[in-house]
């Protein structure tokens, strides 16, 4: 009722419409600037009629009452050829809504609107803009055709350059990916080869420029070439992409290591899918497992705080570098623990002894490098470390070696994986390393490794006990490589003043590769080189033949159950070196727990219970 009353009030009289028409005709004759134009007779008739057209609609289940009139309710000859009764007869983009900003509630003469009417009612106007929409659609179609034409011309123009600048580099990239797919670890070699080619190209260009500089100076001046702007030598995007693929391959090799090479290779073999299946079944490998641990790491973490990353990386640079040089593969770093692997299945039977020797030599050289490093020696004067560990604190590491099988593969889930080795033998290697705390020695080699080593290395091993380790089905002998690292001094020579760059690192890698290749040569006596090493000579000087013979006699009495005799001999070796001998102390402590009387069922073995993390340091 409210809308009907408003519609009745809003009706335009016929006189007002005719007056508007008369005014418009006069303005048209006078060329008036603001000429609104005339209306056809049918339009004037509709405009002066009652607002009786009902165009109700619903919006969100709410009834919206609309009553008015449509100037397009009938076709008008020569003006419009279609009829529209209500705004809903047009698409949303074909009509435009107009409504007053302020809705007056006063009737002519100043009187208010009829009682019962509310301010929610509003007068609106809908304009048919279909002709303009058609014009816009036509212009858009023309623009689309024009753009397509331009693209066609551009594609024809660039096709030649595309063949030269894209197809050939893409073929090179495909060959690179195929090589990485076959052997992911080859990416580092490819990077070195690429860098070598870049350096050769730079050298040739430099020589050529130097040669042509003087000869072409006069010509450049005459032809004004010297004033020309310098041309850009930036590499093409395809070259950048090719080098990026090699870099990604190097990062995969560094991130996954030898243990993850199979994961990368298997996933890159899938040509028909972009999905990644990281959880590839593992494979059994025969290997020598090495565990290296940084002692007092928890205290170092509390004291150094943010600098602990630098501390660990400085140690890792020594551990990884020496292990890689001796044909090992760094695998995992759990903060204080480094897990390294020497795969023996890839070597011939005659070379397995060489790998076992290299594993022992690698840990020996790491121990010497740790205590000779000037960078790590700086931590000895750290006030926080001295407060917690004493004035004689230093960076300590202990090592354990064991040989056996392991499962090489991915550990984790589809969200995060680590390429590692899982096996009871890994736990045994960790227990062997932890035994260094019980026996007070830096390096213990399990019987499984000693049995494979050459006679030259075996002669440097001291049998210190026969134990049962958790995870092992059989008792095993533990051998110590006796090294008095406390007698080593910090390197006092002048430090290398090298500004490390890509070129310097490449030269260093090439030098290490040469050194590494020499160690695998059958004619190279790796043990002989170790025996001539000055650091090794210093660390072995304290362990005399008399000491070794007396300890061996004491151990034989211990193993045979003659503990009273073993007590007398081991008591002498306990202090014979000038400091307490860790294995002698450990055996005496074990025998003392039974009042130096061997059990009735003594079988020359005992359970090994590793002590809590700590360090039994030498006392001088």
Shape: elongated
Quick check: average pLDDT?
Answer: 82
The fraction of residues assigned to DSSP E strands is: 5-15%
Give the beta-strand count: 15
Oligomer: single chain
Describe this structure in words.
By secondary structure, this protein is α+β, with helices and mostly antiparallel strands. It contains 22 helices and 15 strands. The chain has helices at residues 2-10, 14-29, 41-47, 130-182, 187-215, 217-222, 237-256, 261-268, 297-304, 308-325, 349-372, 374-377, 383-389, 424-439, 447-450, 455-458, 502-520, 526-531, 534-540, 545-559, 563-576, 582-592; strands at 53-54, 57-59, 62-64, 67-68, 95-98, 125-128, 283-294, 329-333, 337-343, 397-412, 417-422, 443-446, 461-468, 476-481, 606-607. The strands form four sheets. Strands 7, 8, 9, 10, 11, 12, 13, 14 and 15 form a nine-stranded mixed sheet that branches. The chain has a two-stranded antiparallel ribbon with strand order 1-4. Strands 2-3 form a two-stranded antiparallel sheet. A hairpin with a 4-residue loop joins β10 and β11 (417-422). The N and C termini lie far apart (111 Å). Mean pLDDT is 82; it is low at 109-117, 225-232 and 610-620.
């Amino acid at each position: 009722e409210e809308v009907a009353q408003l519609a009745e009030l809003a009706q335009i009289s016929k006189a007002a419409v005719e007056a508007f028409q008369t005014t418009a005709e006069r303005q048209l004759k006078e060329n008036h600037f603001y000429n609104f134009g005339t209306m056809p007779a049918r339009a004037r008739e509709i405009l002066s009629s009652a607002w009786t057209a009902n165009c109700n609609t619903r919006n969100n289940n709410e009834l919206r009452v609309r009553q008015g009139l449509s100037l397009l309710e009938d076709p008008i000859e020569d003006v419009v050829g279609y009829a529209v009764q209500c705004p809903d007869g047009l698409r949303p983009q074909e009509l435009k809504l107009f409504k007053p900003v302020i809705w007056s509630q006063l009737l002519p003469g100043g009187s208010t609107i009829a009682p019962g009417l509310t301010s929610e009612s509003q007068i609106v106007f809908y304009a048919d803009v279909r002709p303009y929409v058609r014009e816009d659609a036509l212009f858009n179609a023309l623009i689309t055709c024009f753009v397509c034409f331009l693209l066609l011309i551009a594609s024809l123009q660039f096709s030649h350059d595309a063949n030269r600048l894209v197809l050939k580099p893409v073929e090179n990239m495909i060959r690179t990916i195929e090589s990485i797919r076959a052997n992911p670890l080859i990416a580092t070699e490819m990077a070195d080869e690429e860098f070598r080619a870049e350096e050769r190209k730079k050298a040739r260009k430099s020589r050529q420029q130097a040669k042509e500089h003087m000869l072409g100076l006069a010509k450049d001046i005459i032809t004004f070439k010297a004033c020309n702007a310098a041309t850009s030598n930036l590499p093409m995007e395809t070259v950048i992409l090719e080098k990026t693929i090699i870099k990604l391959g190097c990062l995969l090799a560094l991130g996954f290591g030898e243990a993850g090479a199979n994961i990368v290779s298997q996933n890159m073999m899938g040509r028909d899918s972009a999905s990644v299946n990281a959880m590839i079944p593992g494979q059994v490998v025969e290997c020598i497992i090495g565990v290296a641990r940084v002692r007092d790491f928890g205290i170092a973490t509390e004291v150094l705080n943010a600098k602990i990353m630098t501390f660990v990386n400085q140690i890792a640079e020594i551990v990884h570098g020496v292990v890689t040089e001796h044909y090992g593969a760094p695998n995992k770093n759990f903060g204080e623990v480094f897990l390294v692997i020497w795969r023996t299945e890839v070597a011939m039977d005659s070379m397995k002894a060489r790998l076992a020797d290299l594993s022992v030599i690698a840990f020996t050289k790491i121990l010497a490098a740790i205590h000779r490093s000037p960078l790590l020696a700086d931590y000895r004067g750290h006030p926080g470390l001295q407060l917690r560990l004493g004035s004689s604190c230093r960076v300590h590491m202990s090592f354990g070696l064991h040989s056996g099988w392991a499962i090489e593969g991915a550990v984790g889930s589809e969200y995060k994986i680590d390429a590692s080795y899982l096996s009871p033998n890994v736990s045994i290697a960790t227990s062997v390393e932890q035994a260094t705390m019980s026996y007070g020695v830096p390096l213990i080699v399990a019987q499984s490794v000693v049995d494979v080593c050459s006679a030259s290395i075996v002669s440097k091993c001291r049998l210190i006990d026969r134990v049962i380790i958790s995870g092992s089905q059989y008792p095993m002998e533990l051998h110590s490589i006796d090294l008095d690292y406390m007698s080593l001094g910090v390197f006092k020579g002048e430090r290398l003043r090298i500004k490390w760059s890509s070129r310097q690192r490449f030269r260093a890698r090439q030098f290490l590769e040469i050194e590494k290749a020499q160690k695998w040569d059958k004619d190279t006596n790796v043990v002989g080189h170790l025996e001539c090493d000055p650091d090794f000579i210093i660390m072995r000087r304290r362990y005399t033949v008399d000491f070794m013979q007396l300890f061996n006699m004491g151990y034989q009495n211990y193993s045979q159950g003659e503990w009273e005799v073993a007590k007398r001999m081991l008591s002498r070796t306990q202090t014979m070196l000038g400091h307490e001998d860790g294995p002698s102390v450990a055996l005496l402590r074990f025998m003392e727990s039974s009042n130096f009387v061997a059990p009735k069922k003594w079988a020359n073995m005992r359970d090994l219970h590793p002590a809590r993390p700590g360090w039994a340091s030498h006392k001088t």
